[in-house]
């Protein structure tokens, strides 16, 4: 008989070690290795039979995968146009951000025509009922199950087509060691759910909690099992929430949806143009708007900067919504190439509305926002900028320049600073908006604030 083997799995990175160690040799974290036993197939008593035969491509029957609408347009957009039947979708986010709320609403809509099962492993039935009442969810076929054991969930789910697991960290498999929420359990439960979706033709939504550093607890191992991974982002005190696709096998992974948390639940924000920029932005120094592309849409995002003199020790660098390293890099470029001093200044940077900007095209707007705060000169509110910055101070071309310029025109901007190499593709709009092509960041700074000598 085959031996039951023991392995030690790191709870942070999922790496496997044959013996217990105080420090994970892969990610370097201390005290994260947990013992797991693995029961071989023959011990479990199952006979190994292939479940699928090789099939010629021409013989595979085409199935009708018409997307199913959730009733929330923003959510459909993030999914790439609606739910793909028999797919498995993970929704991650900080505690209390609204993961259960949005899925209750969606399943409330679906329950009008489909058989849905809401598996609440974290909350009691009466708590779910309380939320459903608040959200006005009263579908006739909305079924709630309070169960943590995956084997039972699998059995019960036979009669349903759409299933929510709230949450993956709260369910467990009894023939697998480790407590609920451990990497091993999360990974195993996720692959069982994936099989449930694919083999039994169910559409599964899985809720996952996020760790302190922003990853879904039970880390990357979970993400590659899923068809689609969505993250709910937003500051806890802010009612605006952004749903972002980070992986999508059936659509763009660049899509974002903007929502607002209200007493009646999550509402989609249709006119998101005013969400990420303020009306009185031209009054104070340090504010510049960029045109950011997410999936198929372009939205204006205001970058704000505040500077204050460093009183003691090293100057502070504090970005919100912008990567720390990117901010430090742009500061260095401005110091060297535009001769703007930041060495004795604390710098605070913010992308408005709680959105996270990772696009390189926002570099120029970040640089101009920093320069504006440094010079203490406000930038005209009718000006917008986009372009990628290189370490030599050059402004590099970005993709979708035409879309960005079109959006700026639509929103009533009067001038746009853009990379010179993008100029040819947008010069046809010169009669609608002033185009200011630049090759170097120093040119843009000079244009707005005058020249700075070394
Ligand atoms: N009566 C209410 N009025 C307005 N907002 C409410 C009300 N009740 C709850 N909320 C909002 O709903 C949020 C909780 O939503 P939800 O339970 O869906 O979050 P979650 O992401 O599932 O959290 P968890 O990770 O703890 O399960 C709260 O943060 C709160 O902002
Ligand atoms: Mg919840």
Q: Could you describe the 3D structure shown?
A:
This protein is an alpha/beta fold. The protein has three domains: 5-43; 67-270, 3-Layer(aba) Sandwich (Rossmann fold); 274-449, Ribosomal Protein S5, domain 2. 25% of the residues lie in helices and 26% in strands. It contains twelve helices and 21 strands. It has helices at 41-44, 73-79, 99-110, 125-135, 150-156, 183-199, 219-223, 324-337, 363-375, 401-410, 423-426, 441-449, and strands spanning 5-10, 16-17, 33-38, 88-93, 116-120, 142-145, 162-166, 203-209, 228-233, 240-248, 256-262, 265-268, 287-294, 297-309, 317-320, 345-351, 383-385, 388-389, 395-396, 415-419, 434-438. The strands form five sheets. The chain has a nine-stranded mixed sheet with strand order 6-5-7-8-4-9-10-11-12. Helix 8 (324-337) packs across helix 9 (363-375) and helix 9 (363-375) crosses helix 12. It is globular and about 75 Å long. The model has no long low-confidence stretch (mean pLDDT 86). It binds adenosine-5'-triphosphate and magnesium ion.
C-alpha end-to-end distance: 78 Å
- Classified in CATH, the superfamily of the largest domain is P-loop containing nucleotide triphosphate hydrolases
* Number of discrete domains: 3
CATH fold topology of the largest domain: Rossmann fold
Q: Assign the CATH class of the largest domain.
A: Alpha Beta
Helical percentage:
10-25%
Distinct small molecules bound, one entry per kind: adenosine-5'-triphosphate, magnesium ion
Largest sheet, in brief, is: 9 strands, mixed
Mean pLDDT: 86
Q: Beta-strand level of the residues, as a percent range? A: 25-35%
CATH architecture of the largest domain: 3-Layer(aba) Sandwich
Quaternary assembly: single chain
Low-confidence segments, given as residue ranges, are none
Widest beta sheet: strand line-up = 6-5-7-8-4-9-10-11-12
Which structural class should the secondary elements be placed in? alpha/beta
**What integer value in Å does the Rg equal?**
26 Å
**Record field, number of beta strands:** 21
